[in-house]
Design brief:
The chain contains nine helices and 22 strands. By secondary structure, it is of the alpha+beta class. The protein starts with a strand and ends with a strand. It comes from Mycolicibacterium pulveris (Mycobacterium pulveris).
Length: 350
């Protein structure tokens, strides 16, 4: 097993990150478009030389700007699987898998990804899911130390993506192969990732286990990805979180949160009640917002407010269709969101 250590600064893309992937672990890289996710993969693959930094896989140094080391892509023993399978259209499936210079046991890997019966077909005869499995077999046939996954399942339908995840998990878990996966799909994180980093504006905004990031995200994108509301602020002497606009959020504080610390308040959209007029009585946290959009989510309607004053994503509330019909909300209207204190968790900022 081999771990991965990366530090990469790419000035013209505004990227400066540092992280490690444990031996045999799958790291999911999340973030909004333009955050630097694909840049990180390209640096590891050797497709892009950073202005400063290094890439190490186990004891092998693949890139070290200070020492002038930059191993060529084809000698890195790094496999790259992208959204486009990039199969050679003039070669059969078997020939595609056998094509890489270091390819070993192509028939074995076709069997491993449940594609042995496709060996004689041409790429144009494959479905999207079949082509992606063949591309995975080609990447694995080169026996890479590291597998890089750049949203390889994004273009597949639900059934094909589910099958591909099953194959990926089998191969990654059994072979203890380290992998770095860029994704926008929460199912990829839930089924494949051991750890997560969130990139925002070219920097690591937070890192942690997949379970921790999804349960208690500390970054704006992490919260939006996990479907959780997040409010930034500073903890006051009374234990409430105070935003820069003076709003106080009361909730259950984590043990490591103390007065004066930067912190975040987290709560689920389902815990938010929506009112046309300021409510009286029990809800302790009440904020006036402007409706940005409404979206149907099965039996619920999600009401998304405009971005918060500090630029964080707008708060969201999930209400029943009956409540939505009664409230008759439209974008641009001013309304009130209310959340009981016991539904709010306050954690340290990353």
């Amino acid at each position: 097993m081999t771990g991965i250590s990366v530090r990469a600064a790419v000035e013209n893309r505004g990227v400066d990150v540092e992280f490690e992937v444990g031996a045999g672990q799958v790291l999911a890289v999340l973030g909004p478009n333009g955050a630097g996710k694909s840049t990180v993969l390209h640096v590891i693959a050797g497709l892009l030389r950073p202005d400063a930094g290094f890439v190490r896989v186990g004891e092998r140094v693949l890139t070290d700007v200070g020492s002038g080391i930059h191993i060529a892509t084809h000698d890195r023993r790094v496999g790259l699987l992208m959204q486009d399978p990039l199969l050679f259209p003039h070669l059969s499936v078997a020939a595609n898998v056998a094509f890489p210079p270091r390819s070993r046991r192509p028939a074995h890997w076709l069997t491993e990804v449940d594609a042995a019966e496709l060996a004689s077909r041409m790429p144009r005869q494959l479905s999207g899911g079949q082509a992606q499995r063949v591309a995975l077999a080609r990447a694995l046939a080169a026996e890479p130390d590291v597998l890089l996954l750049d949203e390889p399942l994004a273009g597949l339908d639900v059934a094909a993506a589910t099958a591909a995840r099953k194959v990926l998990r089998k191969v990654l878990v059994r072979d203890d192969r380290s992998a770095v996966m860029v994704t926008h799909d929460i199912l990829d994180v839930l089924t494949l990732a051991d750890r997560v980093i969130v990139l925002e504006s070219g920097r690591v905004a937070e890192t942690g286990s997949a379970a921790a990031i999804l349960a208690t995200p500390r970054s704006r994108f992490g919260a939006r990805f996990a479907g959780v509301n997040l409010v930034n602020g500073v903890v006051g002497a009374d234990g409430a979180l105070r935003t820069r606009t003076g709003m106080s959020w009361h909730g259950e504080r984590a043990a490591d949160v103390v007065a004066g610390d930067s912190a975040v308040a987290l709560f689920y959209p389902a815990a938010v009640a929506v009112y046309r007029d300021r409510p009286r009585g029990s809800p302790r946290n009440t904020v006036e917002v402007t409706v940005a959009e409404l979206d149907s989510r099965g039996p619920a309607i999600r009401v998304r407010a405009e971005d918060q004053p500090d630029g964080a994503p707008g708060l969201a509330a999930d209400i029943t269709t009956e409540a939505a019909a009664e409230l008759r909300l439209t974008p641009g209207e001013r309304i009130y969101f209310a959340v009981k204190a016991q539904e709010v968790a306050i954690h340290p900022s990353p």
